[in-house]
Amino acid sequence: MRADHNAAIWTDEAQVADWVASSAQRERTRSAHRQVMVDLLPFADDEEFTFVDLGAGTGAASRAVLDRYTSARAVLADFSPQMMAEGLSSLASYEGRFRYVTMDLEAPGWPAELPKSSHAVISSLCVHHVPDERKRQLFAEILEHLEPGGWYLNYDPVGAASPVVADAWQRVGDRRDPNAPAARANRTPEQQKRWENHVRHISPLEPQLRWLQDAGFEAVDVYWKDLENAIFGGRRPH
Ligand SMILES: C[S@@+](CC[C@H](N)C(=O)[O-])C[C@H]1O[C@@H](n2cnc3c(N)ncnc32)[C@H](O)[C@@H]1O
């Protein structure tokens, strides 16, 4: 694995433990968004299919899909042994329906342990960790690893197109969470590092939609959006 800041954060025991400890609270809001992603997949509830979850972490997105589609199988890809270890234990009740593969999303080319082609690819809250040029390549690699008609859906924070938009998003966010301004102003050095790592490669939606189209996806759309969070993607043509 590359020795960069993002990798250092996601392989730091204390930072991962902190992320895991606070994830239940975040999931209370996110679970409704994850259901939108699940609803967008075009499968019958009992249909057999395989999907890949990129930057899967502890498996929150995969779990939502596996719960709805009872014959689905997940291949979860991530580069953090600590996040994958957490996922292995929290997904124990899905044994036989999932496996983890080590993958660095920044490295071109997919590990041989990933299926050459799957029925769907999802990613949530991780593509923003890679630089734009790599996002672009990754979208093309995802298309190549999908069956014809297969969907790619990405749930990710996106950048504001202007400072006025960014201010409006923050204003609404602060109304929803009155503790947010104080939390922002009083980050510990570790929280500040994590924040900077979180935002450094976040990009606006428009270029990302174009890269999906350039990669060859059809039906590219923003299927859901709330302030900075969006679910967008498309389908590999038949
Ligand atoms: C915010 S967590 C999201 C995890 C999960 N997808 C979810 O929705 O809860 C980000 C995940 O992306 C992974 N990640 C970050 N950069 C990565 C990279 N370059 N290659 C593979 N995984 C990466 C981290 O290890 C972490 O598990």
Main attributes?
single chain, 238 residues, alpha/beta, Rossmann fold, 7-stranded mixed beta sheet, 9 helices, 45% helix, binds S-adenosylmethionine
Annotate the secondary structure layout:
Layout: H1 5-10, H2 13-40, E1 49-54, H3 60-68, E2 72-78, H4 81-90, E3 98-102, E4 118-124, H5 132-144, E5 146-157, H6 163-176, H7 180-185, H8 189-199, H9 205-215, E6 218-226, E7 229-235
Parallel strand pairs: 1-2, 1-4, 2-3, 4-5
Antiparallel strand pairs: 5-7, 6-7
Bound molecules: S-adenosylmethionine.
The site of S-adenosylmethionine (SAM) has 20 residues, from helix 1 and helix 3.
Description:
The protein is an alpha/beta fold and 238 residues long. It has a single domain, classed as Vaccinia Virus protein VP39 (Rossmann fold, 3-Layer(aba) Sandwich). Helix content is 45%, strand content 22%. The mean pLDDT is 96. Bound molecules: S-adenosylmethionine. S-adenosylmethionine (SAM) binds at residues 6, 10, 55-57, 60-61, 78-80, 83, 103-106, 124-126, 129-130.
